[in-house]
User: Fold these one by one.
Assistant:
Number 1:
Amino acid sequence: MEGPIRAREALALTLLSLLFFLSRSSALHDLLISNAERRIDLSSHIVKVYLTLKVENAGSSPASEVVLAFPPSQVDHLATVEALATKGKRKKTTFVRLEVKPTELPDAPNDTKYFTIYLANPLNSGESITLEVLYMLTHSLEPFPAEIGQSESQLVYYRDSALVLSPYHIKQQTTFIKTPSTKVESFARVEPTNRAGTEIKYGPYEDRTPYSFSPILVHFENNSPFAVVEELVREVEISHWGNLQVTEQYKLVHAGARHKGVFSRVDYQSRPSFNGVSSFRYLLARLPPRVHSVYYRDEIGNISSSHLRTDSRKSELEIEPRYPLFGGWKATFVVGYGLPLQDFLFESSEDRRYLNFTFGCPLIETVVDKLTFKVVLPEGSKDPSAVVPFPVDQHLETKYSYLDIVGRTVVVLEKKNVVPGHNSHFQVYYTFKPIFMLAEPLMLASAFFLFFIACIAYLHIDLSIRK
Amino acid sequence: MSAPEASSAAVPTLTTNNTLRNAFGGVLSFFILLLIGVLAFSIRLFSVIKYESVIHEFDPYFNYRVTQFLTKNGIYEFWNWFDDRTWYPLGRVIGGTVYPGLTLTAGTIWWLLNSLNIPLSVETVCVFTAPIFSAFASWATYLLTKEVKGAGAGLTAAVLLAMVPSYISRSVAGSYDNEAVAIFALIFTFYLYIKTLNTGSLFYATLNSIAYFYMVCSWGGYTFIINLIPMHVLLCIVTGRYSSRLYIAYAPLVVLGTLLAALVPVVGFNAVMTSEHFASFLVFIIIHVVALVYYIKGILSPKMFKVAVTLVVSVGLAVCCAVIAVLIALVASSPTKGWSGRSLSLLDPTYASKYIPIIASVSEHQPPTWPSYFMDINVLAFLVPAGIIACFLPLSDASSFVVLYIVTSVYFSGVMVRLMLVLAPAACITSGIALSQAFDVFTRSIKFQLPGVSSKTEVDAGETSSATKEAQNDAVKTEKAEETSKDRPSRKSKKKEREHVEKPSTKTKAEKKRLLALPLEASVISLLLLVFLGAFYVVHCVWAAAEAYSAPSIVLTSHSHDGLHVFDDFREAYAWLRHNTDVDDKVASWWDYGYQTTAMANRTVIVDNNTWNNTHIATVGTAMSSPEKAAWEIFHSLDVKYVLVVFGGLVGYPSDDINKFLWMVRIGGGVFPHIKEPDYLRDGQYRIDSQATPTMLNCLMYKLSYYRFVETDGKGFDRVRRTEIGKKYFKLTHFEEVFTTHHWMVRIYKLKPQKNRIRGKTKKSKSKTSSKSSGTRKKNPWL
């Protein structure tokens, strides 16, 4: 079954891309970037790159797409790409969010991968537009040395190009790299290069041809917590009796330089700022407001070291794993809480409801390698559909819980490489008749009723053979 | 004085009221029982409320792990389970060496709940198994005592058992141990035995065997049943109380029970081979002889019977002597005389301390102190003698059983503190009887003294119980009479007969009442005092449940001026081991922590709490008592990668490894004679300060416990031993610290890898280099 469909899809894709190529090949070369400014923020383990592009249409036909290029080594670590178009000047600047999609271009040199920004209005010839692009890279800081002792601080490599990789001609460009501290072991020089404080400036470079590339390497100290959740399963269970139960199962790992040799508690306790500087003890989770019955435990019981602060706008849960995490150490735990249903469940039409919830990981500044989001709909609900602002894998499961007979439909959403940028709302629509709420209470009541009837019957029947 | 008239006037009303009153009393006692069950369950939840829903202590972790395996892999895999995570490199056949009752019970509950789609975790089911079975146990106590002395005594005994501290200590929520279900099984087996004895019904006899089977599945303490019941049978025979009911109560139990017991893998042929069971077979023979004698006596004339007796006795004695001689020879040929070590230490309390230090080293195998009796059974200790007296008024088969039960269990509890648990139900039953009888007497005399009330308040609680009790006693008597004619009435006709019997007895009862009456004031005061006694008992039990017996022992708390402080170091260490070591790494620790390490850290251990192999434990003990290098070699030969020690010196946790260390020396020295206890003692005193012996200061346990301890406060003050440690600054050459928990309670060390072999070096210089610290290695030109 799958074969023909795949082939058909592939055929359609090639046809489409051919068409695009025909229409775009001119546009690709007609656009040029008059000014590119790139700011790379290396202060945490998630690399954030802010790219400001001033795009000019030098061709004759209007262009509706702008293509971003990424080297293949970065694409695997690319978590999110967002683009905004700026409108107006100075104080009246407004931003318009633009659609970004990965695309394939046929003549990509060295396996370069592309993302296309679809402009809201086509760019006429001679006009220019300023685009703000933000993309995040995970697992892009390579610890070197790869193994460190307890008291050593963590040094990492960051590899990139001094020049912005682009299929367009770039007239002028500058790159700023912000390091978390002034401790920089070394950095590659591509003149003109300047370093001031925590910032390294590459450029300005003038008039670079398309696909110019100039590899750089920055070796610097980064002791921010390299908290990576290898696997996160979030389960939201909807109960129409008024509660939303959230259960989150974490597999946490410190993804920085591996810990080597001894762990001495006496050193760790006497001078924590010096000994164990690369480790982390606390994690902060942002939970929705009005959260209740929060628990934090693992497979062997409750973990007593956590604090919950709530106010009207948000709740903050500070959790401490059982032991401080050094490089390569792992920990697993479960966080669960209840939420009032009316904050998250809304009615869209007759019997049609939707859940509005945030995707992503509640822990701040963490990368999730694999996120599985399960929305457990109440028993008897039909036609589930999920609306997520970015591509995710979806499928349906069935779960049995508390006296279920037909089982509950579970909408499973899976996404890899999730960063805090994915903490946006998504919706799950389904149809549910409120009469189903009464199924289980009625079942219990009738079971007890039958039991009592049986008791009465037994007491009134004389089953003895001899009278 | 007007009582006779009043009661005779009350006769018609009594008969019309009787059915109503019986129904009312039935419903009332049903609800009281329900409440008792709720009480028994909820008083054991303090541990969940004060701490958390977690498995407690050591053995429960093993049971929990077995249950997890059972629920995951099914029953057949469970029987065949060879556990390679423990007793490395020997392993352990779990299916054939555990009493499966508890795990099968919890597994069944879990399976049942899950098939109803109630998604409770295995842990939750395990945590709450003990409280649920406590409720069952109190109901079983009600049934048992009801058979002995009527419903009133039954209810009193049930409520006493629901909150007896001794039982609470073993069955709080989370205390997932064999005793949790075994006490229920024990009482229920006794109940069915008494029930069979009272009714002579083969149906109950079969049930009794099945209950006995459940008990055998659950706990090694089943030997108590299979010795106590024969003792009672023998007592009945000797006191001339033999009846066909006794035969029906006993013979099926031995035959069916032994067959069923042999089905349990851990018992197997032990059910017929070991000396613990011989008493039952002996009595089995005796009861048949007696039955035969009674039969022959029935068909022969008295004269002929006498002749037959002399004949049989002379022949029988010869045969018996021969059989006994063979038996004794068989038993004597085995080294332990056919008895297991734990049973022997019961018969001879000094046995364990003399020969088996590993049994003696367990604190729950020590004899109890007097205060622990007051702590564990409280006021019951004073009520028991009264209960025994009440059992003799009048003495029936059932009450003689209770007397025997209490007497033997008092003895056993005096030998091992753990067996206080067997005493508790007996104490509750006798105290229940005592209290109920006392209330009976006092309320009756009050009623007698207040003439106006006596005719109207017939539906008094004490009166109801006494009436039903007497009615039942009468019923039993009539049943006995009927038994001989082999006529068994149906349920309904039985009830009717009871009423018939009651009518004529009311008049004689009134006579009795008059004789037993006490002065009004004395009765009222005594009643008040009894109520106070009960109240004191309740207060004590609640206190014991809340404060003394609810700590899960893997998480400790302390109250200080700045609030509650939690010491969760054990789980910190186990979680660390679980997540940050290789899955096949072997962890060595003293055997106390074996079960927890396999269950919580999921790592292979060398020894654990199932102390079946003394040599293996002695090896670990020897390693802990040896100097570093020798210890490294022992551990390395066992493929150990991590060594775990428990150290309480920083926070003052007294049951740490340094305090258990002398047992390691003793057990190690018992197998490996080069470890000598006096080497570790200075003038017979165990000390770790500067006066300690060099052997002590250089042994592995000392070093692993106190490594870099001096750097915490500069002096190295041990808060458990209340002294400064002897050797403060030293380095480890063969071990390295890999993890120490927040309060230093658990310290984990890794064995350093073996040094590269240096070619051309003599053995002497090699050992020299290996004993040097790594700092000097650079000087060696070969490295």
Number 2:
Amino acid sequence: MSETAVHGEAIEWESEDEDSDDDAEEEEYTSPSQQPPPSSANFDKDRHLVYLEMMYELLPYHYQSQEINRLTLAHFIISGLHFLGATDRVDKDVVANWVLSFQAFPSNRASLKEGEFYGFYGSRSSQFPIDENGDLTHNNSHLASTYCALAILKVIGHDLSTIDSGSLLLSMKNLQQDDGSFMPIHTGGETDLRFVYCAAAICDMLGDWSGMDKEKAKNYILNCQSYDGGFGLIPGSESHGGGTYCAIASLRLMGFIGADLLSNDSSGSILDPSLLLNWSLQRQASDGGFQGRTNKRSDTCYAFWIGAVLKLIGGDAFIDKTALRQFLLSCQSKYGGFSKFPGALPDLYHSYYGYTAFSFLEEPGLSPLCPELGLPLLTSTLGI
Amino acid sequence: MHARKEAASAAKVVKLRSFQSRFMSNHHHKIYTKEAIDLSTKLLEINPRRIITELPPARQKIPFHEESNPHLVKSILDEELKVVESTLRQNFKSYGAWHHRKWVLSKGHSSVGNELRLLDKFQSLYSRNFHAWNYLRFVVELINRSEQDELKYTDDEMAMNVDGGKFQEMIKKYNMFLDHVKTI
């Protein structure tokens, strides 16, 4: 999830990642002169607003290398503003038109080219002009960007039923592999849980599951569960906070598990929740933060990735929320935003997941959280 | 001073735009000469993150099957591995870079011994790199399959025997581990 993330890398995640990112920078961080700053006592909403507004106006040059994930960065800013109750700071029509301008279309339904995916591009730099036949010469639309595009539209209250989602959903099936996993882009790419999650979230937001084979996706997800109860990003890999989130959130969105997973008799369930609960709770470290994998440093974003897992399976009451809050506050930057570790500089990805984490902790003044979408909880915008 | 920096920045932008439009044109007209490939390498060096978008697919479209000279194919693929390696040095967590490497290896013209040596280097830099661990499993799978199918990787026996057979020992232990995990 990279980024990426899911988004980037999310997409990459992420983006992603951008997306559910791995955290290797601890080796770079350890400088004896760098003392973590004293924790502030409170969530500094005003400073976060200044930070996001500044980012909305102009991204610092350090983000140049993430230009291909521009839509993801926009999602972090705009959805972040929503958590802070400040979407009135953006011009919603301008934003909607901008996001919609990234949608890829086939020249006509009949020409839905074999194997291509018609979603959203991540940035103008991936968007090539149409050729003389009205076809897209290079269709680089991407699953994670599509998730971010729909997320932004949903957050600003745009009616998603007005989007031309026919070719999007029809062609999304082209990205699903035989084993149930998803490629992010039809030209090829790594297949892993991040993109299964993007697909499920897209179907949920559009209220239409014709874009994916849920049963196959479920099987792939279950194959990603490791011996310790967590989920890796691909079958056989190490349990990972981002992977576990993608697994559980997807299963929840697809309706294979319910909110009562822990409280119910687990014999009828598709997975044993106790081992998962155990793994997830063990990720809360002595400093109060959550780590992404065993023996890694606590990192702001896992407060969301794993906190949300626990919320979804009904086990969040076991989290030491006071300690978590303290850790997160130590990652709160005096410039606004959140950093990955205490004392580091803030970035948009960790800031966004800091806001989602505080929403999960029910911080007063923040919008409530929709844990399975990683977005503010919103009423349906499907014209219902 | 400030004006000079701005001028230098502006010049960089002009250069990048020119590379980019030439790259687009090559891709559109399916031009895969050495010059075209070098251009996309240059773009990758300027911004390694592009490896997750259009660059690998562009390079993967190179019509290898049409090329009858196996040495030429091997040298092109070796060049790919060099480019990916330099991208990985800047960011060893890049999903796209590791994926492109898998694609090159799956063509069957590369040395697995080299891959194991590379992995050894990455693991010693940072042992928790799950991309490297996943890639190791991929490489071991290739080796296991080649033993069964008597494919070309067994030509690499010399490479495998370096350091007193260190890699062979590692692979044996790893396969034992995989078998054990299946029984848990």
